[in-house]
Amino acid sequence: MSSSRQPRETRPASPESTRGAGPAGLEPLAVLPVFVPLQGKRAVLAGSNGGAPWKVKLLAAAGADVDVYAPEPSDELRAVPGEIVAGSVTLHERQWQETDLQGAAFVIGAMEDEADCIAFVAAGRRAGAIVNAVDRPHLCDVKFGAIVNRSPMVVGISTEGAAPVFGQTVRARIEGMLPRGFKAWIGAARDWREEVTARFHGFSDRRAFWERFTDRAFAEPDRVPTDRDLAELLGETEAAPKGGAVTLVGAGPGDAELLTLKALRALRNADVILYDDLVAPEILDYARREARTMLVGKTGHGPSCRQDDINALMVQLAKSGKQVVRLKSGDPLVFGRAGEEIDACRQAGVPVAIVPGVSAAQGAAASLGVSLTNRDAARRLQYVTGHDRRGGLPEDLNWGALADPSVTTVVYMPKKTLRVLLERAMTEGLAPGTPALLVFNATRPNQRVVEASALDLADRVEASGFEGPALLMVGEALRRTGADAVLATMEPDKLAI
Ligand code: SAH
């Protein structure tokens, strides 16, 4: 190809992609979750309404020294000083006054009387405290959420008052998901942090240690970690081979939920991500924010970076100690020129690993709801390329195999040569009535399908005007009759013609 382009650095999350649901993207937030350290600080609660005892316990649990002012405390509130696990609670059986608020970091109004509460809250603000009022959201600077406590890890959940029961259910689910033993592991992390930081100077070594640590915690959450764990983890990290590496990662056909757990982990570990045009932008949202992302665009049409340049860049980055992810659409080993990239790494002595992905054919078949190897219709499944190195129809395709009535054929990169490919296959014996589909943008929100027969697919595709990466699928296994013809798995707007 005469025109070529250079690898181009891109931002980790483009404005378009951040509108999606990616974790690094920023959608509007109903509230800003922040965490307030209260260890050894003074907190004041005034009043004795129903919510008061629990709030006092919470403040004390966070390590605050709580002064409670209540002229007529409920029995429940009286019992609180004897029930706390941290901090301290002093009950003053009298009305609050302005000087009580001096030096308070956090104050809570828990009185029945609205006017009294308004005065208290104003006094709290004058004293420079963070202010909350039980059951009076309009008077609050900050609000409490539901809590999952694995201190030092704390999870806070808010629905901003929209659905408290829903929030409680989410809380219960998260409780179930986070083993209680995490508490001990995260506590150990806090205790070991300094030693680990002193031992490893580079970011990647520290990260490697904490990844090993996290793997252990997830593998044995209910075992209490010991100094032996620390010693082993330090040793393993030191012994691990140093330097960069390349991981070829399959990004799947588009839908980010089709990423494998390994792919996610590789993305999170990457210092640099070299990706193709065909990789859906949402997928890059799973990278670390600090990771460099570079578009090395290799679509079938239009200018691409030269494969040699990509190989050289990949090797050079890995040799400079970077963890390089070469992110490729679908599966890296299916029509992805992975062989050349693997060879380049091996020749340069750079370790290379491969994380498979869902190939476009699998994604398309799943969204169509068809079995590619339907037992009545197909004995064989073949993946074929629609163009050769020069972009034309490959001369050496096995036409007998394409005409075989008991095969399901998936043609990658079919668009330029669609008409000639089908015509030639029919000349070679493919029945003109054989079901033939072109699936555009498989698994993406803009997926479109043109469904026809080998004879008329090319015309229908032309008439459709659809755009985007597409796959040709041909074979009796794709014939849908009766109930099957109603595509339960497809949105109506995805089904065209
Ligand atoms: N390694 C990829 C294929 C790369 S070749 C895989 O395993 O899927 C590029 C071709 O893949 C495109 O020309 C198109 O034919 C196909 N392709 C990739 N993503 C696709 C998608 N979401 N929908 C339809 N076809 C797709």
TrEMBL record:
Family annotation (PROSITE patterns): SUMT_1 (PS00839)
Biological processes annotated in GO: methylation
Reactions that this protein is recorded to catalyse: precorrin-2 + NAD(+) = sirohydrochlorin + NADH + 2 H(+)
Keywords: Cobalamin biosynthesis, Lyase, Methyltransferase, Multifunctional enzyme, NAD, Oxidoreductase, Porphyrin biosynthesis, S-adenosyl-L-methionine, Transferase
EC nos: 1.3.1.76, 2.1.1.107, 4.99.1.4
Domain spans labelled Tetrapyrrole methylase: 246-454
Skewed-composition ranges (Basic and acidic residues): 1-11
Pathway: Porphyrin-containing compound metabolism; siroheme biosynthesis; sirohydrochlorin from precorrin-2: step 1/1; Porphyrin-containing compound metabolism; siroheme biosynthesis; precorrin-2 from uroporphyrinogen III: step 1/1
Alphabetized Gene3D superfamilies for the sequence: Cobalt-precorrin-4 Transmethylase, Domain 1, Methyltransferase, Cobalt-precorrin-4 Transmethylase, Domain 2, NAD(P)-binding Rossmann-like Domain, Sirohaem synthase, dimerisation domain, Siroheme synthase, domain 2
Domain (Sirohaem synthase dimerisation): residue spans on this chain: 185-220
Family per similarity comment: Belongs to the precorrin methyltransferase family.
Name by which UniProt lists this protein: Siroheme synthase CysG
Biological source species: Methylobacterium adhaesivum
